[in-house]
Design brief:
six-stranded mixed beta sheet; eight-stranded mixed beta sheet; 32 strands; disordered N terminus; mainly beta; SH3 type barrels
Length: 521
């Protein structure tokens, strides 16, 4: 068995592949090609009308899956679009140019370079992958002259030759014609290694310029490794009328392997459909992650429509550091939004539409003790003090300085109802029982009855909203109830039950399901 390269040996190999001052633009070509300056010039010196900053468009979704990842790699969660300006000094004719600092999570197949002038054409593009480990170095070194230090008979010695194989020890072709197999070695280096091993990932192009001079390009590519979600703070005001203040920010996670400095940032609230590739297992906590300071003042993003989604364009350039979670504001604080405080009982059944009527008696939702949840409801309208699309995220709710709880908010359009469930109500309880079940196969009906007992230990009377699941089939009706029922959708009915202070109330109802003759349960 051979010994893996030490970190020192690997560093020596990498140092040998890129001599100090050598341009990072070598291409495997058949004939010499004049090489342009491969170092992008400072884009801040670009003439008027030319792009001056990298544009970074990040889509929501995958935030939770991405935030705990430590190592960047192709196929990772998250989605972003990058538009990066590049400037090169070209010679007349063919030139070899390259761009480094490309993220490992980049979709290489979709990367495109577009010249901004008419006198330059793109002739070819290739991606240079970074080294993935010791075996990758050995594989690329086969056929090259190498020097191997090893121990033989208790003494150190060095052999040099052409590396023939690295599968079971190192096999060298020595200068005197001998073939030598070294089973264990201490150090390894490549003797002649001009641009053999890349120090980092890079995109390379062959371009043709009609005349010498500066040429500007736009590099566009999609990538994984970046995602965002909204973070809201809702604070209930004192007083008998329910009102709250709402603040919104965006949390941007960067696990792409690259820091974006001075990027023009757009955050899109939407998840476009993508053709997913198999992703490697990359879970683990990123120790370098941090949360930037709260950003609630200063210029706010501009909201616009982006296709089927909503986008937020930040007014100033941002630095999105690799391994970090950056916090940026989404909209100005809304100081007074009308709301309604209440309590909710939800027996919760599987959110699944059955293909036929469900006849099993136990397909009825939860029974026994059920928690009563405190909730804050509001209408997302201008009349209520809001009236804007809200990206998906977490809402933290406070009653003054007292923490009530957290609630998940999905993408919410203007005009929609919002219900924030913040935690269990200590002084309220509920118990749900099934009291009757009758199946009539000949008549194609199921009749089912329930009783929900609500108890209130508070010193004041309250009203509890009871949301009942009706999961057996889509054709149903409430045939009897002690409190009027409201059909909220195809699978739920709602009851508002007054409960006296220090007392209890009982809700009873009966539901009948029917199915057509051609439906087979």
């Amino acid at each position: 068995m051979h010994r893996s390269l030490s970190l020192l040996a690997t560093a020596c190999v990498l140092a040998a592949c890129s001599p100090q001052g050598a341009p990072d633009n070598a291409l495997p070509v058949q004939a010499p090609i004049p090489v342009g300056d491969a170092r992008p010039a400072d884009t801040r010196t670009a003439p008027t009308g030319a792009p001056a900053d990298t544009r970074l468009t990040i889509y929501s979704g995958d935030y939770e899956a991405l935030a705990g990842i430590e190592r960047a790699a192709p196929g990772m969660p998250g989605y972003a679009l990058v538009e990066r300006p590049l400037l090169y000094n070209l010679t007349a004719g063919s030139n070899a140019i390259s761009a480094t600092s490309v993220p490992p999570a980049m979709d290489v197949e979709a990367a495109t370079l577009r010249p901004l002038g008419s006198n330059v054409t793109i002739e070819g593009q290739r991606f240079i992958a970074p080294l993935t480990g010791t075996q990758d170095v050995l594989g690329k070194a086969i056929g090259q002259r190498v020097s191997v230090e090893h121990t033989s008979g208790g003494a150190k010695q060095t052999d040099s030759g052409t590396l023939l194989s690295a599968s079971d020890g190192l096999t060298l072709a020595l200068a005197d014609g001998r073939i030598k197999v070294i089973g264990k070695y201490d150090n390894f280096s490549i003797i002649d290694n001009t641009n053999l091993l890349p120090q980092q990932a890079a995109l390379q192009w062959t371009v043709h310029a009609e005349q010498a001079g500066e040429a500007r390009f736009l590099l566009n590519y999609p990538m994984g490794g970046m995602a965002w979600r909204a973070e809201y703070l809702a604070t209930l005001a004192d007083g008998e009328d329910c009102a709250l203040a709402l603040e919104g920010a965006a949390l941007v996670a960067n696990r792409s392997g690259v820091t974006f400095a001075d990027a023009r940032l757009s955050l899109v609230a939407g998840e476009p459909q993508r053709v997913q590739k198999q992703a490697p297992a990359l879970r683990g906590r990123a120790e370098s992650a941090y949360l930037a300071a709260d950003a609630t003042s200063g210029p706010m993003p501009t909201r616009r429509t982006s296709g089927e989604y909503h986008a937020y364009d930040l007014p100033t350039a941002s630095r999105i550091a690799n391994g970090a979670i950056e916090r940026v504001p989404l909209f100005p604080r809304r100081p007074m939004i009308a709301c309604e405080r209440g309590y909710l009982v939800d027996a919760s059944a599987p959110e699944w539409q059955p293909p036929q009527p469900m006849l099993e008696p136990d397909f009825r939702g939860a029974t026994g003790q059920i928690p009563v949840t405190a909730a804050v409801s509001l209408h997302n309208s201008e009349a209520a003090g809001l009236g804007q699309p809200l990206p998906a995220g977490r809402v933290r709710v406070f009653d003054g300085s007292e923490f009530l709880g957290e609630s998940e908010l999905g993408h919410t359009a203007a005009g929609a109802e919002i219900r924030l469930e913040v935690g269990a109500a200590f002084d309220l309880s509920a118990e749900r029982e099934s009291t009757a079940f009758r199946l009539d196969r000949a008549g194609r009906t199921i009749t089912e009855s329930f009783e929900i007992t609500l108890r209130n230990a508070k010193p004041t009377a309250t009203t509890i909203r009871v949301v009942e699941p009706l999961p057996r089939w889509t054709d149903w009706e409430i045939t009897a109830s002690s409190v009027p029922a409201e059909k909220t959708d195809a699978r739920h009915a709602e009851f508002r039950v007054p409960v006296p202070a220090g007392g209890e109330a009982r809700l009873t109802y009966t539901v009948r399901y029917r199915w057509a003759q051609d439906v087979i349960p």
